[in-house]
Design a protein that fits this description.
Helix content is about 65%, strand content about 0%. The chain is mainly alpha-helical. The longest helix is centred in the middle third of the chain and has 26 residues, at about 50-75. It is elongated and about 80 Å long. The N and C termini lie far apart (about 65 Å). The relative contact order is 0.04.
Length: about 100
């Protein structure tokens, strides 16, 4: 048949083709395949808070967002929101997590 040299060539081709393709596509794709406005601008991205006051404000914002979503969910289910006692579904979910 082909011999040892052909087998070595095929093996090298099988190994190098995917690596070469990944290298070609992976190196600097922003210039090679330009798509306008693909990457977000720095001001459009998330800002990670580092100051303790910023962290507290972010935690309060996330908590308010979560409580608003909970209020809307309970309103849709026809239940009232009572902060002193959790609803039955929340208690069941909490027990299932333990």
């Amino acid at each position: 048949m082909g011999g040892l040299n052909l087998e070595v060539f095929k093996f090298g081709l099988y190994i190098m083709f995917p690596i070469g393709l990944m290298y070609y596509v992976g190196t600097d794709p922003g210039n090679r395949f330009p798509i306008p406005d693909w990457w977000p601008k720095a001001e459009e991205g998330h800002k990670i808070p580092h100051d303790p006051e910023e962290l507290k404000r972010e935690v309060l914002r996330m908590k308010a967002q979560r409580l608003e979503a909970r209020r809307r969910r309970l309103e849709a289910e026809g239940l009232e929101m009572d902060a002193s006692k959790p609803d039955a579904k929340s208690a069941e979910r909490f027990k299932a997590l333990k």
